[in-house]
Amino acid sequence: MLFKQSLFQSVLDRFDSEEEPAEQEEAAHRIRGLNVSFAATVPGGETPDAHRPDEAYRDNLGDPIILPKPEPESAPQEPKPPVMPKHLARTSREEVAAELALTSDLTREALQEKRRSFAKANHPDGVAAPFREQATTRMTLANQLIDEAIRRLRR
C-alpha cells in the first residue's frame, strides 16, 4: 500500500489524471456549429448525385452499352404439387424389412450404418410436407427393426 492506497487504486488514480488533458485537447480542435456534413457542388454546377461512378469506364469503352430489355412479366404460375417418391409408398413392416435386408451376420456397426443410410433417404425432415407422415412411419419401422436386430446380437 502506497500512502494508504492500494496499488490498484493508485494505478486507477494515475489513469484518471492522464485522461483529463486528452479530453481537453480533443474538445479544443473541434469547431462548434458544424454538426452536419455537406457536399460541395462540382465544377459545372452539377451535384455529386448526378454523376455515376461507372461513367468513367464508359468513356474508354467506345461503343455504348446496350442493356437487355426487361422481359414482360407473365402471370405468376402456381408451383407444381410435389410428387411423392415411390419408396415412401412402402409403409408395411415387411416392405421396410425387405428394403433394409437385415441378416443375422451383420455387426452392430453395420446395423448402425444401415440406420444412417435409411434415414438419409427417408427422414421426415428431408421430404415434402404432404409426405412426412409416410416418412415418419417408415423411419419408425426401420428403427424398430434395427433395434430388434441389435438386441438379438447381445444374446
Q: H/E element string?
A: HHHHH
User: Biggest sheet, open or closed, and with what strands and sense?
Assistant: none
Number of helices: 5
Low-confidence stretches are: none
Explain what this protein looks like in three dimensions.
This protein has helices at 7-29, 55-61, 93-100, 108-122, 132-154. With 155 residues, it is mostly helical. It has a domain at 86-154. Helix 3 (93-100) packs across helix 5 (132-154) and helix 4 runs antiparallel to helix 5.
Task: Give a brief rundown of this model.
This protein is mainly α and 155 residues long. The protein is 49% helix and 0% strand.
What would the keywords be for this entry?
5 helices, mainly alpha, 155 residues
Topology, please?
Blueprint: H1 7-29, H2 55-61, H3 93-100, H4 108-122, H5 132-154
